[in-house]
Amino acid sequence: MNETVTTYGLYLAIALPLTVWVARTLFRHGRLFLVDCFHGNEALADSVNHLLVVGFYLVNFGFVSLFLKLARDVIGVRGIFEMLSVKLGVVLLVLGAMHFFNLLVLTKLRKRAQWERNAPVPPAPPQAHPHKAPTL
Question: In the predicted model, what is the mean pLDDT of residues 21-43?
């Protein structure tokens, strides 16, 4: 087995579990945030949390797969480490960017939910007196 194939194997052996760990961490710790975003509706928050994790897996596993191909042959152990650092560094940056994008969207949802919760209730429109007949 040559260094290029070794690099492929190590890249997948690190990138895939890393993606799973990040997704599980976000799923576990993001629930409370989502419950707040959705006015305490736990069923909706859990559903959205699950859908976010599925989308996260699809995008990241797809990216890891597409980013697998190496542009050049890897030579020696030093080449393996250098190529892995580039590949894994890009994967980590993409994971981080996706995380911050999701946080941005969810923070906007949360702020809107908080505004709706705290918005003043408009006064009720005046009602006709029940004992008086309307005038024409």
Answer: 87
